[in-house]
Amino acid sequence: MNLLRIVHVLDLLISYNTLYKYMTMKELERIQKALRHSNTLVLKDREEKVECSFIKEGLVYENFQIENNVLATALQEASVNGIVEGLHFERLKNRYEWFALRVKSRMLLDTLK
Description:
Blueprint: H1 2-36, E1 40-46, E2 49-56, E3 59-66, H2 69-78, E4 83-85, H3 86-94, H4 96-112
Antiparallel strand pairs: 1-2, 1-4, 2-3
């Protein structure tokens, strides 16, 4: 009986981990799309999430929350006081593939710990 419970718990953990990674990949894709259509990113801390507002010509183009802590931390590292604009924005936009790879690597490292 205990073995069945352990197997069930492991299945739940694997399912949760897969769903968590899927959600993060969707967040990464959404950020990449929003970067293409905006020129400023504003980050706001909201409880345990980070709200991203992508702005183009003074209007909010896209607004959503990031739930993944690794991704949120990486975005905040790219910002200056929660704002990514000008050269920092262009760098994030043009090197986004490297940014995403760094986030995925950090997630893998956290999983292995």
